[in-house]
Amino acid sequence: MITINAQELKELLAAWPGMALLNVRPADTDLQDELPGSQHIPLAEFELRAQELPPDKDAVIAVYDLNLTCEASTKAGDILEKFGYRHIYNFTDGVKGWKDAGFPVA
Fold first, then answer.
1. Nearest alpha carbon to residue 50 among 58, 41, 59
2. Cβ-proximal residues to 11 (8 Å cutoff; 6+ apart), any chain
3. In CATH, what class is 2-100?
4. What SS3 class is residue 87?
5. 60 touches 41 (CB < 8 A)
6. What's the pLDDT score for residue 47?
7. Which candidate, 60, 61, 70, places its Cα nearest to that of 92?
8. What is the mean pLDDT of each run of 10 residues along the chain (106 residues)?
9. How far apart are CA 37 and CA 60, in angstroms?
10. β-strand 39-40 against 20-23: which pairing, if any?
11. What is the greatest pairwise CA distance in the chain?
């Protein structure tokens, strides 16, 4: 798993338009501030909803949560590694870092 910042995620999204972008914040989170194109799979439901993950273990996947103090994206990345995925990016700055960088939210 590779840790990335907002600029690196923006570049990754441009390079891999079909990549999976997973919002792993809790189910009761206000989803008004979500990264464009992301799919919400709460960490607590991650293993139960594994069928929603890309079937290709070589898929490019980025995970994010709210901000640096949250650990959900790191835990989700660990689960993805356990599932056999090989190209996992952990956007640890989360929604807050994305907005602070001046990038749009959905």
1. 41
2. none
3. alpha beta
4. strand
5. no
6. 86
7. 70
8. 96 93 87 86 91 95 85 93 96 92 90
9. 14
10. parallel
11. 34
100 within 8 A of 6, measured Cβ to Cβ: yes
Q: Which amino acid is at 87?
A: H
Q: State pTM to two decimals.
A: 0.91
Closest to 63 measured CA to CA, from 100, 28, 83: 83
Q: How far apart are CA 96 and CA 44, in angstroms?
A: 21
Enumerate the domain spans of the chain. Answer: 2-100
Whether the Cβ atoms of residue 13 and residue 37 lie closer than 8 Å to each other: yes
Q: Which pLDDT value is given to residue 46?
A: 86
* 47 within 8 A of 80, measured Cβ to Cβ: no
* Beta-carbon count within 10 A of 40 CB: 14
CB-CB contact of 73 with 65 (8 Å)? yes
Which amino acid, residue 89?
A: Y
